[in-house]
Amino acid sequence: MVNIKLPISVLILTLNEEDNLPVCLAALSWCDDIVVLDSGSTDHTCIIAEKFGARIYSREFDTFASQRNYGLEKTDLKHEWVLHLDADEVMTGDLLHEIKSKIQEERFDAYRIPCKMIFWGKWLRYSGMYPTYQVRLTRNRGFRFRQVGHGQKEDMDLERVGTLENPYLHYSFSKGIGEWFDKHNRYAGQEADETIRQIRYGNVDWKSLISRDAYKRRMALKQFSYRLPFRPFFRFAYMYFLKMGFLDGIAGFHYCCMVAIYEYMIVLKVKEKRQEQSKADLTSGGCPKK
Asked: Where are any strands of DSSP class E within the chain?
């Protein structure tokens, strides 16, 4: 990593990350305050974190939002600015230089950062939907996350959130395909709950579908997708053909197939949850009140 020091704390979420954590931490040599918030690792994760000089806290995982909020509130972070990472994510020198210039401007209270999805050693430039953004750099001054589906979003006005151009690297498949499916099986249940909620209470921001702002356009498209029939098919077609995922070669094809399967898992879980709710309503309605 480049020879630079920044007044930024780094908060890393971990669970059995002994393979990923060394690479993540090695790219943070510029940081003098690294906090690892662990969820009960049974491997050498915490030992590795200690060797790199990180401070270690432990909390049972419930949601990404509450986990990150706990880190903001309870770990005595040294600096006002906080960079949020997972153990399979790696900083780059270009991103670090951009962060340095942006935090000096004092224009925003948080920043979205794009990531490069790495699969089989290849950057999925097209099928990985680059650039997609998450808020990962925040002021620890009243900033908090809220849970949406399986992930988290900023709980603040969009006008206070800026966007960075340079990405970090995301090695989402570093633990193998099986772990990816296990993880997304859990995510599918959370996304099913969010789908039901959006269909029942949410509205599509139709104007943002044609907005020049890529972030607003993506959010509106996600709202629209909740109501779309044949979601797995359209997700594959959108990624592989419209977003030109075929240019990523065989890795892109397999990734598009995997995401389509994930969408199908969500569809099935939505159906299952609705059936369970219908049964519960019938049972409740059929029982005499005492």
From this structure: 8-14, 34-38, 55-58, 81-86, 89-90, 110-119, 122-123, 133-139, 145-148, 151-154, 161-163, 168-170
pLDDT for 6 equals 93
Q: b or e along 155-171 (b: 16 or more beta carbons within 10 Å of the residue's beta carbon)?
A: ebeeeebebbebbbbbb
Please indicate whether residue 219 or residue 46 has the higher confidence score (pLDDT).
Answer: 46
Say if residues 127 and 248 touch (Cβ distance below 8 Å).
Answer: yes
Model pTM? 0.88
Q: What is the mean pLDDT of the chain?
A: 92
Length of the chain: 290
**β-bridge mates for residue 33, sequence order:** none
Domain boundary among 126, 145, 170: 170
191 and 165 housed in the same domain: no
Residue at a domain's end among 111, 142, 170: 170
